[in-house]
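Figure 2 data, in text form.
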Amino acid sequence: MRTYLESRRKEMRKVDLDVATFICVSAIEAVAHNTVLHGAEMLSEKTVRTLVEETTRLVVGVFEVEGVNAQRLRCICIVSCIGFPTH
């Protein structure tokens, strides 16, 4: 994730990429971990989409990216969260 963010640095607000990357990766991992621990097998596809969307909003908000860059970052979040099982 940091490598991607570094390549888009000019399109973001000034931010310490190491700290921001740590926050974002930690947030994504926490959501994934807690979802699995608390009955991920019971989640509907709609709930999984909501988890991914809200996690994405969190990550995009850290970097204040917009437009195409937000969409690319959304893809990274989806790939990170893809392990969410649905019923």
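Caption note: The helical segments are 2-7, 17-37, 45-63, 68-81.
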